[in-house]
Amino acid sequence: MGQPRLLLVTVDDVWADTVNRFFTPRGYRLMWARTATAALGEGTRVRPNAVLVEREMPDLAGADLCRSIRGASGIDATTPIIMTTVSELDADQRLELLRAGAWDVVRSPADPDEMVTRVETYLAAKRAAERARDEGLVDPATGLYNNHGLARRSEEAVAEAFRRHAALACLAVAPELGGEGAPGEPETDTLALDVAQALHGVRRSDVTGRQASVEFVIVAPRTDVLGAVGLARRLASSVRPMHLRVGYDAVPNVREIPTSPPVLIHSALEALRRIPPGSGHTSIQPFRPFEHRRPDLV
C-alpha cells in the first residue's frame, strides 16, 4: 500500500490541525477538503486509502454525503469511511449512515489516539481484503477472471486443445477511446465496464479475463482464424454504437503448433496495440499470417 493516503473532509480548522498532528508523524499523507464537492474531486484524483468525514458538511450532509463519497470513482468497497458527528444520533440515524457506506460513526470531538487506532485497524482489514482479491481468480469490478485466474484457466484450455488436436485462439479487446480517453478517467471506466458486460455473453467454454484497466482477453477453445474473426465481429456488434479494437492470434492445431498461454496472450495483445487509436470504427488485427488464412480476412 506504501504511504497511506487519508482524505479528511471537514470545515473545522481545529480538528484538521489535530488530525494533521497525529497522523502525519505516523507516515500518513493527509489531503484536506473543506466541502463535499472538493472531497469528491480529491477522491477521484488521489484514491485515498481511508476517508475521515464530518457528517454536518454545509453543501452535502449525512447519508447523502456518505453515499456520494462511497460512489466516487477513486474509492472502492474496501476503502474505510469513518464519519464524525457533533450530534447525538439515535439507532435509526446511525443505521442509515452505515447502510450508506460508512464503516464507523464516531461522536465528535473524538479522541485523536483512538481515531488513529480505528483508522489503522480498518486499513489492516483493507490490506487483507486486497490480498484476498489479488490472490483470487476474479476481478471484482467486472466479474471476469483477473490475471491470476486468466493464467490458470488458460493453461487448462491449452492442455485440453493439445489432447484433442484442436484449434485455439486468443483475442485481445479494448474500447476505442478516441483522443481524450485515458485509463482511470470515469468515462473510460464506464466504457471498460460496458465491454466487460458484453464479454459475459461469450461462450461458456471461453476463458475471459481483464488484462488491464481497459484491455480484455478471450482464450477461445476450438476456434481457428475464421472463428476468431467471427467472434470479434459478433462482439463488436453487441456493443454498438461503441467501437472496439481487437487483436487476435490463432493456432489451428495445438499439438502440431505448440503454444502456451503467455505466448498466445502476448501475441493477441501485440496485435491489439498495433492498431492506431482514434480510428473511429471497429478494427480487427491479426498477429501473424498463417498459410490457411483466407486473403480477404487479412
Keywords:
298 residues, alpha/beta, Rossmann fold, Alpha-Beta Plaits, 2 domains, five-stranded parallel β-sheet, 10 strands, 19% strand
Q: What's a quick, concise take on this entry?
A:
The chain is 41% helix and 19% strand. It is an alpha/beta fold and 298 residues long.
Overview of this protein structure:
It is a single chain. Helix 1 (13-23) links the parallel strand 1 (5-9) and strand 2. This protein has 2 domains: 5-135, 3-Layer(aba) Sandwich (Rossmann fold); 147-297, Reverse transcriptase/Diguanylate cyclase domain (Alpha-Beta Plaits). The strands form 2 sheets. It has a 5-stranded parallel sheet with strand order 2-1-3-4-5, with helices on both faces. The chain has helices at 13-23, 36-46, 62-71, 91-99, 112-135, 147-163, 186-199, 225-238, 261-273, and strands spanning 5-9, 29-33, 50-54, 81-85, 104-107, 168-175, 207-212, 215-221, 244-251, 283-286. It is elongated, with a radius of gyration of 24 Å. The longest helix has 24 residues, at 112-135. It has 298 residues and is an alpha/beta fold.
